[in-house]
Amino acid sequence: MKKGYLLALAAVSAALIAGCATSHQPPNWVYEAWSKHDVPAKQVQAEMRECGYRDVNRANDLSAREAAQAEACMRDKGFELDLSSYRPNNCYGKAPYLCKRLWGGRAPQTERVMPSTN
To answer: What does the pLDDT look like over 73-93, one tens digit per residue?
Structure first.
C-alpha cells in the first residue's frame, strides 16, 4: 500500500513539474519562427535582413506596414511562419512583434480569478 502511494505521488509530482516547465516558456525569436526545409538559422537571419528585418530576434523596430512587407517577402521566398510558440501567457514585456500582431497591438489581458466563498 505504501509503495503504491509513493508511486502515485511521484507520478503526480512529475506531471506537475513537466506542466510548469512547458507552460511559461518564452516565445521563439522571430528568426526561429520562420522556417524552410533544410535552411540553417544563419541563412534564415540573412534572408530576413534582405526582406527588411533589422532586429531578427524581436523585430520590434518595424512599423506595422514594414512588418507586413517583410512577412510577405519571406513568404515569397518560400518560408513558413510558425506562430505556435506565441501564447497569451508568454507574450509580455519586450516580446517579439508577433505577440503584438496576434493580439491587435496590445498586451493580452488576463482576468483576475477569485476563490469561491462556498
So the answer is: 999 999 999 999 888 888 877
